[in-house]
């Protein structure tokens, strides 16, 4: 399972916050983590329903919000108002987004640290945070 480690890390993080893991919540998290792209609560609920998972829409909303609050989901407001969420490993990373299918690959931050050090020296600017997003075409779409 591709997201196995990330899933266990999220489970551990939620456990630390005394989050009560139930079967429906876990079903939401598993379906969400396997997806690898942004999705709204309604769309995710629809997918779960098609798999005959007994999960209410309110549970989907709350679970996504909880994941975001522990750093395990990124959110993107959509043009039509609904918020879309993306499952994220709790470790700092970046995204490479396919502009054709919306698939998101996680990118580790390794080489950006060097750029940060160079900028700090050059600009005499203490960087405390950064945000990067890459766009392109994924393997399947190219
Ligand atoms: Zn992410
Ligand atoms: Zn693609
Ligand atoms: Zn970074």
Description:
The chain has 142 residues and is an alpha+beta fold. Helices cover 44% and strands 18% of the residues. A three-stranded antiparallel sheet has the order 1-3-2. The longest helix is centred in the last third of the chain and has 14 residues, at 110-123. The two termini are 25 Å apart. Bound molecules: zinc ion (3 copies). One zinc ion binds at residues 92, 94, 109, 112, 130.
Observed structural traits:
6 strands, binds zinc ion, three-stranded antiparallel beta sheet, single chain, 142 residues, 18% strand, three-stranded mixed beta sheet, alpha+beta
Q: What is the global morphology?
A: globular
Strand segment tally: 6
- What is the mean predicted local confidence, pLDDT? 91
Q: Indicate the structural class.
A: alpha+beta
Distance between the termini: 25 Å
């Amino acid at each position: 399972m591709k997201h196995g480690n990330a899933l266990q890390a999220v489970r551990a993080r939620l456990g630390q916050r005394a989050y009560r893991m139930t079967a429906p919540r876990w079903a939401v998290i598993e379906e969400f983590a396997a997806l690898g792209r942004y999705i709204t609560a309604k769309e995710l609920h629809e997918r779960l329903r098609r798999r005959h998972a007994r999960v209410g829409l309110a549970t989907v909303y709350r679970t996504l919000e909880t994941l975001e609050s522990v750093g395990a989901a990124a959110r993107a407001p959509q043009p039509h108002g609904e918020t879309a969420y993306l499952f994220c490993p709790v470790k700092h990373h970046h995204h490479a987004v396919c502009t054709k299918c919306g698939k998101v690959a996680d990118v580790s931050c390794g080489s950006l640290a060097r750029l940060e050090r160079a900028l700090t020296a050059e600009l005499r600017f203490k960087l405390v945070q950064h945000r990067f997003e890459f766009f392109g075409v994924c393997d399947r779409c190219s």
